[in-house]
Amino acid sequence: MDEYKHIKEELMNLLVQHSNADMDDEFQLANELLTLGEAHKDTHAIAFAHTFLADYHLMIREHEACLKHLHIALNLGEEYHYTDLLLRNYTIAGLYYNSHFDEVNAIQNLLNAYNLAENEKDLHQKMVVLNNIATMFFQKEDYQEALYYIKMAYQTFLDKKATIMTHADLLVILNLIQLEIFNEHLDKAIKRYQEYAAKLVSFKASPLSTHVIRLCELYLANASKRVDSVKRIADYFSESNLHKHKNRTYYFTFYCDIFAILLQIKDQERAEKYLQYMGEMCLEDDVEQQLQLHRNWIRYAECFHLENVLINSYKQYYMLQKLVEDMTNKTKSESMKEKIKMNQIMKERDRFRNEKNQLEAQIKIDGLTRLFNRSYFNSLVCAMHKNPHVSTIGIVVADVDYFKEFNDYYGHHMGDKLLQNVARCMDENGDSRFFAARFGGDEFITLCVNITKEDICEYLDHIYAELDQIGMEHKMNKAAEKATISCGFTIFQNDDLFRYEDALTMADAALYKAKAAGKNQYKQY
After folding, report:
1. Is 344 exposed, middle or buried (0-12, 13-18, 19+ CB in 10 A)?
2. 221-264, pLDDT tens digit by residue?
3. Which domain holds residue 428?
4. What CATH number has the domain bearing residue 520?
């Protein structure tokens, strides 16, 4: 288990490092993780692999493959509540829909990611989402709105107070500089660049990061009217052969930006060269990039008064526009049908859940642990309080130590097994005076009637001994290297002063004392 966990974590860390930068490595690592996860039936590893395969195919513009992996990753993430992966998947979905001219679904998915990041207090992913929203507005040439969102992203970057700059941090800083230039705040852009110049020069996390920095220098050179510097940086990109790189999403955008600047300085030779590069990068079925390419040909022909090129480019452009219109209508239609279908599925799922809950409530049993459920336990306490033959009432509450960490490490299947073991111990170690129930999640509760403090301590001692004998491995448990529980209990006279709510509160307080004392023990209130 340790060796598998080590290999899995190493693969996941490498995937994060190579994402968007070394595309071949990203693809190979994701497939290795997928094979490993499937062999060990590890749904988190499988979902992680599909997430990065979706990311890989999105970056190289293979959209059908992206969507296939994205659906698998999203379904697993939502089923098993993998919030770390859902954050990435909602973001990938947003970028996917944006590339298919479906801005409504794009923004919806990005907002899903943003809300999840806020709930999880994940400042890094919150920053990433805001940067992506800013990029969408930039693509629509709404530079003012883009600046608003990139400023939010930059503030989130500052709030992180990170000591090490990541590639995502770099993008936020440089996008802010770029948008300050586009909004005619050149002085601010120059000051911002100077503020981070030393860090930017030393930042060499990947070739992609280096190219982003050089692109920023190109924008500053153009805004400052340094034509020779513009040409020199354009030649640097030309010699880098980025049009042969698999990451078509990033580098096609780079070339479009460089091309636009070359038109501004009226450099026909270099501009035409970049048009050729973009043509080599475009896949024939990639309507979004084909449309951008022909739009660039039109601008080129208009800039240099090339009438024949202009006429041909307009023809190609309008044909693509019609294709985009058809594609957009189809996408919207499919999206509406998918939403209706999903709504029906959700309603059906809710109906089954309600029926299941009603059935379990009727039979008084929790489905997983076979203990009494919470609803019946509450009614049982009420009945015992009214029983004249019950002189004392004790409440014991328990929960599993570091249960979330156990689930994350061993998986939900083993988590269920652990809950069943605890339930059996609590049920079988008490006589007819003890009524154990599952209170919810990893929380358990026992009603004790006509007992003394010594009776409850003996009951709990037997539970702890049996759990220790079972010895279920739990390497994430800081209290022991096996599964343990913490408990709290209280005892009341069964008279008119007894209040179940008060007893529960006191038992909970005793539980918290046990946790504060190091867990794997019980305390009395």
Report:
1. exposed
2. 999 999 999 999 999 988 988 777 777 777 888 888 899 999 99
3. 374-524
4. 3.30.70.270
